[in-house]
């Protein structure tokens, strides 16, 4: 069977040992999952225990919360693609280290290049800072659209943060409402059903990229 370029990339990472996370207790590389033609990607930080066991990003409690939040924005998992910045579980769910991010980040960028999403929603500080390439707190930039060169970035809090700190949940829900407003404004009316295409990926009609709003980064 001929592999797609995305499948080839996944295959090339199955036994990846490019950074030390390969030797720190991972069960498997968690590449990403979802619709390879998605116009919307979600990017988290790194696999946790459940993700490491199952080989999929965002399973377990954080995944369930993400599914509920996606539904509130009119989205489902089969419409989007989900990946993490780091593909292997850091021990004891510690934060990724800079050398691990630098080593693994090119594979996220390749995923983005192959999927060509118009919108990338980063979940939490790590993913946001990695794709914005600058240190900026998530609370300063969340729920806003940043027009980067190849896609629009829409940072959101990480669902796991709302599980750990219940007071963040209303904010996260509110931010997904803003995501829905953004999607409603930028989604073309659905085309008549075409049974030969992968179903239901929303068609985003985002205006041509504008410079990132640098003033927000201080
Ligand atoms: S985290 Fe990334 S770079 Fe490190 S071993 Fe896993 S796939 Fe390779």
CATH superfamily: Uracil-DNA glycosylase-like domain
User: Strand arrangement, largest sheet?
Assistant: 1-3-2-4-6-5
* Sheet with the most strands, sense and barrel status: 6 strands, mixed
Q: What is the chains' assembly state? A: single chain
- Helix/strand-derived category reads alpha/beta
CATH class: Alpha Beta
Hetero groups: iron/sulfur cluster
Q: Specify the number of helices.
A: 8
Mean pLDDT: 90
**Radius of gyration from the alpha-carbon trace, in angstroms:** 17 Å
Tally of DSSP β-strands: 6
Strand residue content: 5-15%
- Following the backbone from N to C, one meets helices and strands in this order, namely HEEHHEHEHHEEHH
Ordered list of secondary-structure elements with their pairings:
Blueprint: H1 5-13, E1 33-34, E2 40-44, H2 49-54, H3 60-72, E3 81-84, H4 98-115, E4 119-122, H5 125-132, H6 138-141, E5 146-147, E6 152-153, H7 159-164, H8 169-186
Parallel strand pairs: 2-3, 2-4, 4-6
Antiparallel strand pairs: 1-3, 5-6
In words, what does this structure look like?
With 218 residues, the chain is α/β, with parallel strands linked by helices. It has one domain: Uracil-DNA glycosylase-like domain (Uracil-DNA Glycosylase, subunit E, 3-Layer(aba) Sandwich), CATH 3.40.470. 38% of the residues lie in helices and 9% in strands. Strands 1-3-2-4-6-5 form a six-stranded mixed β-sheet. The chain starts with a helix and ends in a 32-residue tail after the last helix. The C terminus is likely disordered. The site of iron/sulfur cluster has 14 residues, from helix 4.
């Amino acid at each position: 069977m001929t592999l797609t370029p995305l499948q080839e990339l996944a295959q090339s990472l199955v036994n990846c040992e490019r950074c030390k996370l390969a030797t720190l207790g991972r069960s498997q590389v968690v590449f990403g999952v979802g619709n390879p033609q998605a116009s919307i990607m979600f990017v988290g930080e790194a696999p946790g225990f459940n993700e490491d066991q199952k080989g999929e990003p965002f399973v377990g409690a954080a995944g369930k919360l993400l599914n509920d939040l996606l539904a509130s924005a009119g989205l489902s998992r089969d419409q989007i693609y989900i990946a993490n910045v780091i593909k292997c579980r850091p021990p004891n769910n510690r934060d990724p280290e800079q050398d691990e991010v630098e080593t693994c980040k090119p594979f996220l960028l390749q995923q983005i290049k192959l999927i060509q999403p118009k919108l990338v929603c980063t979940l939490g500080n790590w993913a946001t800072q990695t794709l914005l390439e600058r240190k900026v707190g998530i609370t300063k930039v969340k729920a806003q659209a940043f027009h980067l060169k190849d896609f629009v970035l829409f940072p959101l809090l990480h669902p796991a943060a709302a599980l750990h700190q219940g007071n963040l949940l209303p904010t996260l829900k509110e931010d997904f409402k803003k995501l829905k407003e953004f999607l409603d404004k930028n989604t073309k009316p659905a085309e008549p059903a075409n049974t030969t295409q992968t179903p239901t990926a929303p068609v985003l009609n985002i205006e041509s990229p504008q410079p990132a709003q640098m003033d927000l980064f201080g």
